[in-house]
Amino acid sequence: MNSSLVRSFRLAAAGSLAVSLAAIIAACSSSSSGNNNTDDGGPGSDGSVNPDKDGGNTTDKDGGNVVGMDGGGGKDSGTTGQDAGPPGPRYVGRTTVNGTDVQCDWSGCRAMAKFHGTAASISIGSSGGTSSSNYDVIVDGVVTKKIIVDQTTSATAFVLASGLAVGDHTVEVYKRSEGNDGIETFHGFTFPNGGVVLSPPLPGKHTIEFIGDSITAGFGVEAAPTPPAGCDVPPLIDTFTNVHKSFAGVTAANLAADATFIAFSGKGVTRNFDSMDPQLIFGSAMGTQDLYDVTKVDDTTGTWGFKPVPDAVVVALGADDFNHPGDGLPPTQMAFQTAYKAFLTHIRAKNPTSYIFATYSPGTVDVPPAENAGLTICKAAVPAAVASMADAKVFYVNTIPDSVPSDATGCLSHPNANYHTVVATALTAFIKGKTGW
Fold it and tell me: Which ranges of 265-332 would DSSP assign to H, the alpha helix?
């Protein structure tokens, strides 16, 4: 990326079968049980959700079944091998349960279901945030369209698919924009015309948590190759950002993994792009909650339970500590290294069995004067922090390709999809080499 690289801080920063979205929770990419916040009276410490006491099904006025929290009333999915669980939806991401509703806001949170029928809808509401949340709609594995959920949207039905051939289908909504765009509440899937819910799509082969800044979030990736004026402010930035196309999203797909993304534009290790912003991913000023420890970006009162533990954690931070002349001094190499190690130590404490892959933000560059040489400093500090961990499952990813100006054609000189894919290829190979996946 060229010397004009900027990391934006995100300004001001009927008769149908209804499925209760609290039926099956598989949050934070769990392969067997949910991974939800444990301090709100919803799920237990293992992320599971207790079924509705009566476990019964009611009958809609046209004769269709309404599925209770136990997922009853549906049809077996016919899967073999890995158990997909009882009929109902599945979720990936940091979620909380509020009655029969499920909430999430981080990038990449997903709600999905499998059904037998011809059509599907989902009811979503949103609150808080600075803009509108954008979701990809995926039908039978293919992205078919995008839906936009305004931050003031009450429960609204969004049609996901219609006119399908009668048969088994999967539908999914995948949050492509950033977490501070709003907290979404999933109220339920609906399958018209006598549709029947099946056991949910199977979990991914692995679970990965990605931690990073705007690069991990896929900031402005779809603005390339000619970003329009105003691409960095709503509503355009919400349109052009897509974590699904970031190096993290592509790596997760390459590894057939369920992924959680703790990614926020403008965030660094020792400081943020906006020097006046006290909230870091980790190591925030006294009295400010670290973003890594919260369940939702737009409600930092809830602490994440860190269960189940992901198979791997990928850390890609550092660009926003540097590359901002005139906005306070960047950290020294030792200060950056010390802070990076402190974060790795915290990650290990929260995820005692995970592989941890540490690197810097892809696309980090050196900018004069010497103290802003972010790429050079990161390439020295991150491996030193990893070595000092003396942990056999913590690795420095030394295969991230340097970027060139032609890679930085996204909004505000952020990487384009081609560079993200190149990085993902290198990261995928590195992870496979260390894990044997």
Answer: none
Under-50 pLDDT residues of the chain: 1-81
Measured between alpha carbons, how far is 279 from 230 in angstroms, rounded to an integer? 25
Q: Which of 10, 7, 13 is nearest to 277 (CA)?
A: 13
What pLDDT is recorded for position 83? 67
Q: What is the full DSSP assignment across 197-236?
A: EBSPPPPPSEEEEEEESHHHHTTTGGGTTSPPTTTTSTTH
Closest of 431, 107, 428, 93 to residue 254, by C-alpha: 428
Residue 393, Cβ neighbours under 10 Å: how many?
16
Distance CA 4, CA 7 (A): 10
Indicate the CATH number of 17-197 among 3.30.70.890, 1.10.10.10, 2.60.120.260, 1.10.10.1150: 2.60.120.260
* Backbone CA torsion sign across 177, 321, 402, 312: negative
Of the candidates 396, 388, 246, the residue with the CA atom closest to the CA atom of residue 314: 396
Cα separations (Å) of 394 from 254, 290, 355, 428? Answer: 21, 22, 6, 16
Domain ranges of the chain: 17-197, 206-435
Tell me what pLDDT residue 82 has.
59
Asked if domains 17-197 and 206-435 share a fold, the reply is no
What's the whole-model pTM score? 0.84
**Cα–Cα distance measured from residue 376 to residue 370, given in angstroms and rounded to the nearest whole number:** 9
The tens digit of pLDDT for each residue in 266-301 reads 999 999 998 888 999 999 987 789 999 999 998 888
Q: In angstroms, rounded to a whole number, what is the distance separating the alpha carbons of residues 299 and 313?
A: 23
According to DSSP, the residues that pair with 174 across neighbouring strands are: 110, 136
CA distance 203 to 408: 34
Alpha helix (H) residue ranges in 296-416: 333-350, 374-389
Residue with the two structure tokens 């010397």: 3
* pLDDT reported for residue 286: 77
Read off the pLDDT of residues 191-202 as tens digits, 9 standing for 90 and up.
999 999 999 999
CATH topology of domain 206-435: Rossmann fold (3.40.50)
Alpha-carbon distances, residue 328 vs 6, 324, 371 (angstroms): 15, 8, 11
Radius of gyration of the chain (CA): 21
